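Figure S4 source data
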Amino acid sequence: MYTYGTIVPSERVGFVYAQISDVWRAANPVSIHTAYIRTWRNRIIRPDGLPYNLSEPSRLDFSRGQSRVILALTGKKTKGFFLDVGAGDGETNSVTLGLELQAQWEGLLVEGDPIKFSKLLRKHRRAECLQAKILSGNKAGSSASNLELLPSDLFEMVNRTYIDLLNINLHGQELDFLWAVNLNLHTVKIVVIEMQADISREQYLQVTGVMARRGYRISHHIVDGRHKKKDIVFARD
């Protein structure tokens, strides 16, 4: 082991330099982050190819109307790509399941709740699945678990320049998610945000204001009085 002040024989210089380079790369934040993203990508569960296992196999649309709106906005596009954040059990009120069934869309289903995620896997969706809890802040705290993922890291992990649909259902943390993601760095055509029907005017204006500053217009409001839900469909030309 060479220490500071040691005279290194000329024939050993290359070897010592290689050792130093290996240590530097191991401590390099860029290398660490790259390895971190790679670890998350390795956690993605690919579709198993088994037949769907749905509670209502005869249905084609499980949403409150969002799927129909999305297909209309995309010109009934087939084989589109979605990122579904807060995918639940993959069937109940799912915005993306109908896109799979009707137009062969694919994408990534993200769910943090372990019970819901287990149910999601048993549906045998055609999309990839990832168990992850999306953090609402800009950085993980010291107590962060290995299932917590920053919104910006999620987009980096997906590594796509174009996303047809971003569906967000984070039970009140939607605004934090939007602040943490620079949608100007990604081409996302449609964003659907699920909110409570009794959302305050201030919260509504905050969300719509953030989206407007990112170049999105409100395409549709879909209100479900029975379940007290309001879905806002944003589109960007």
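Figure S5 source data
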Amino acid sequence: MKVSFGLILIFLGSLQAWGQFDAYSRESELAVLLDSIRAAKNNAGKENWNTQFKKLIEQTIHEPTVFDITFTRLRTLGVIDSPDKLVRIVNWNVEQDDGTQKYFAYVIHRNSLKDTKHKVIELIDKSFLLTAKPEETLEADMWYGALYYQIIPVEKANKTYYTVLGWDGGTRMSNTKLIDVICFSGNSLKLGYPLFKSGNTTQKRLFFEHSERSVMSLRYEPEYKRIIFDHLMPETPTMVGFYEFYVPDMSYDAFILDNNRWVLKEDVIGINKKDVVVSVASINDKSGEVTTTSTPGKWIDPTGEGKGSSNDVHVAVLPDSDALNTTEDSKKPVKKDKRTMTALEKYEAKKKHKKDDEPPTTLNPGKKRRPKK
């Protein structure tokens, strides 16, 4: 009888172990699928692999331990956490054969750090049904599509509104940076809230479209409680309104957090930090692994990267990109043929050649290009 009881305990223990979620194995499965998306040569192949990846990532983010999963092995998946650790965004893109983008995102939300349950809300890219510059509040299933890289909580009237900074590859002629607001109500999510004041105008979200040949900086500076960004101007007066010809004019504007809303202030001074030590993530060209080192502080533009949990750096990049989870180029970068570079690679390459002290835009109603059917 004692032997039988012992066998039962072993059997039950085996069942429990078998039923436990193995995050490492799941990440390995996801990494294979994500790499297959990036390696696919046409839209049909990308869609096939993305369908499988999307199904598995959705299962994964419903796991109770999702906020503890680092996703470090998925180097082309954007994973960012809010400072209060109550919101996580899992975000990626698939570049189409014509150079346009399809975006995918899940927003994971819990009410408190002690909460064992969380809500998962999918953002569905319906940019082809929206106006060029959507101004209205949007539902999760009517999303314009973007890659988010920073979350800033704002408390207002006993409710938290999450300001998000994002990037859209736009077209072959232009790229777009954006600022939006995510707010939760019950089990639903809404995009857009009138938190941005420019003079006598209040806006729910902002788009900054600029030339693909230029680099616009848009970042949050917590020490100054401001979102600072490049002021954009047309290359010539005749190009007013043609945002694919807008470029930074070497001056800064910023949204300052004032009385729980963002108020525009023009011509602010950009400050480079000189006396700090920062962690820099880089890619080993041979192994492809991400390594982190410390270096004396100099200003690093985070606008193309996403920071994941547990101090891991993530960046969602376009297919076949070598600029994966990097925040700063290595000392001896490998030169690439510009003819084979993707849109985001070219965008990141321009950052490398931008001077460190160059200022990181008037607001412009940037146009969102609709993907070709």
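Residues 22-352 form one domain. The longest helix spans residues 43-61.
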